[in-house]
Design brief:
The complex is a heterodimer of chains A (114) and B (112).
Chain A lengths: L3 E4 L2 E4 L5 E7 L5 E7 L6 E8 L2 E4 L6 E3 L9 E3 L8 E11 L2 E6 L3 E5 L1
Parallel strand pairs in A: 2-11
Antiparallel strand pairs in A: 1-3, 3-8, 4-5, 4-9, 5-6, 7-8, 9-10, 9-11
Chain B lengths: L3 E4 L2 E5 L4 E7 L6 E6 L5 E7 L2 E5 L2 E6 L4 E6 L8 E7 L11 E2 L3 E6 L1
Parallel strand pairs in B: 2-11
Antiparallel strand pairs in B: 1-3, 3-8, 4-5, 4-9, 6-7, 7-8, 9-10, 9-11
Classes of the chains: A mainly beta (114), B mainly beta (112).
Chain lengths: 114, 112
């Protein structure tokens, strides 16, 4: 079945270490997104990519980096520069154009930095 | 940037009750999304609607574009409906941005 795979589901890291979260999709969707969710807040956009080898900063990109070398993959690196990295991270993809589109979401990765 | 407000933030109801969750937004949009997030965190898309009403099983979503308001209704609610329901809108079409703007969600608990 087609979908988005995020791994791992739970991730623990020590403060000061970089960590990379995986997001893979087999839906042939062009656009992919990374969101962060904190308790009591809505999901916020970190980075997005509309095509391979291109990506744009979202609302809260500081302390994060991404790459988009393949259409299927959009990994997110949480760097040591991110001041509050503990959060739930959600990957999504989008098909279609402005008037006819839809989103698919992954199951998320919960990152805890100690 | 579009502002999305949901109400109520928390809702506890008895099995069988009719549930209404509201969403309002500040800037005109092409379509609005209703999503469901279960305790494990994964999100499922329920509806995308740009006008009128859509129905899927016991779920009904309505939107009033002029009033910038949408509602999600659940008829004959059941404990398995317990989840966080999230409203989301795309960016203003002329802005060149991408990605959805999400409400904070409504945490729904249906008690047996």
């Amino acid at each position: 079945d087609g979908g988005i795979t995020q791994s791992p589901k739970y991730l623990f890291r020590k403060e000061g270490q970089n960590v990379t979260l995986s997001c893979e999709q087999n839906l042939n969707h062009d656009a992919m997104y990374w969101y962060r969710q904190d308790p009591g807040q809505g999901l916020r956009l970190i980075y997005y990519s509309q095509i391979v080898n291109d990506f744009q900063k979202g609302d809260i990109a500081e302390g994060y980096s991404v790459s988009r070398e393949k259409k299927e993959s959009f990994p997110l690196t949480v760097t040591s520069a991110q001041k509050n990295p503990t959060a739930f991270y959600l990957c999504a993809s989008r098909y279609g154009t402005f008037h006819n589109y839809g989103y698919t979401f992954g199951s998320g990765t919960r990152l805890t930095v100690v | 940037k579009n502002e999305v407000e949901q109400s109520p933030q928390n809702l506890t109801a008895q099995e069988g009750e009719f549930i209404t969750i509201n969403c309002s937004y500040s800037v005109g949009i092409s379509a609005l999304h209703w999503l469901q997030q279960h305790p494990g965190g994964g999100i499922v898309s329920l509806f995308m609607l740009s006008s009128g009403k859509k129905k899927h099983g016991r779920l009904i979503a309505t939107i009033n574009i002029q009033e910038k308001h949408s509602s999600l209704h659940i008829t004959a609610s059941h404990p398995r409906d317990s989840a966080v329901y999230i409203c989301a809108v795309p960016p203003y079409s002329g802005g060149g941005a991408d990605g959805l703007t999400f409400g904070k969600g409504t945490h729904l608990i249906i008690q047996p």
